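Hey, weird one. I pasted the 25S rRNA (uridine-N(3))-methyltransferase BMT5-like domain-containing protein sequence into the form twice and got a warning about non-standard characters only the second time. First submission, copied straight from the form history:
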Amino acid sequence: MHKNLVGSFFGSAKKMLRVDDQIHVTHKTAPPYDLWDLVGLGSGNSLICIECADFKRSWFKM
């Protein structure tokens, strides 16, 4: 159900992107989240993963 939600989000968000725009997604990488295949979901919506990076909590003020 969540995987379908993310896939639908990619499809909707893609329609609002300009040529050089980006979509940033933060998610957990432990099971079961690692099974969501976000790169594949994006690819299925004609999106390209340009980078995967670790989340840096220090980038956000708490």
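That's the output from the first submission. The warning seems to come from a hidden character in my clipboard, not from the data itself. Residues 7 and 41 are 5 Å apart (CA to CA).
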